[in-house]
Design a protein that fits this description.
14 helices; two-stranded antiparallel ribbon; 336 residues; disordered N terminus
Amino acid sequence: MSKAGIEAEVERARGGVLLSKIGRDYLILLGAFIAIMLIAGYFIPDFWTINYQKELFRRSAILGILAIGQAIVMLTRGVDLSIGASAMTLAIMAAIFFRETPVLMQYPWCVTVLIIFLLGLVIGTLNGLLIGFLKLPPIVVTLGMMTALSGVTLVFTKGFPRGGAHPLLMKFMSAYEVIGIPAVVVIWILVTILMWFILRLTKFGREVYAVGSNPVAAYKSGTHVEKILVSVYAIAGLFAAAYSLFYLGRVVVPALSVAPAGIGMDFLLSSLAIPVLGGVTFRGGEGSIIGVAFASLLYSTIRGILIALGFGTPGILIFTGLVIAVVSIIKQITAR
């Protein structure tokens, strides 16, 4: 057999191993999800009702949107510590724009939505430029951005909740359905499929995985690593903006809670835990958006069980931290 034939066989073998691993991970997630669903049905009396299931999928969809943004960054061996602060800042700004800004209130609500997406894009792009072109470490850049956004939000609000959601946004989150499925869930499903297609079947997606697997080799093969990094952080900013609007539509008035490290810390932890649970690793170049979608359902179901058992925020934070630590350790051990 020729050298080219041997290389082709090796590539096919590698692809088969990868598909086998991905299939195994999906089966593990699916099995865990079924087990957790049965446990939830035991502890939560109305768990199997239609209304509870709709609410569960709404929560999963909103968290899943934010987790996709974080997962894309993690695929490039990066991390966006500012994504939670960005989401909270944008939610508060949207609330103020909708209810307390006369200049914007005279325009249709979609103008404010467009502004929020543009701000999210600017925040993400700035992160990407500093990381991609100035070669600054992602953890330093995004930690700095998180701190800056926390300060901006405190100046903007003086520490008190302000504004509120637009009535149409509230109705969209609570009542809009497509053939009996909450509209936000339909958006989540479509976005998940779209991102899976982009990451798996396009040149951009292949380059994202290549940068995460080996940025030096990706650069030598002709990939513009800097542009890929700017793109993934910009996309994360857009997903943070989408999450901020969905979150605002649910809570109506954002509750401003500032942790010592900055605002939106619970959002950040969820955005990290779900991709890790879904098979995305901090090593980069590994994981799938479909796995992240399954993990969003699993994570939301477990959160529901913890709340039903009376654990509240402390229990959820402990659980989230354990998910990130334990799954990362297991991945590290099995990768050797």
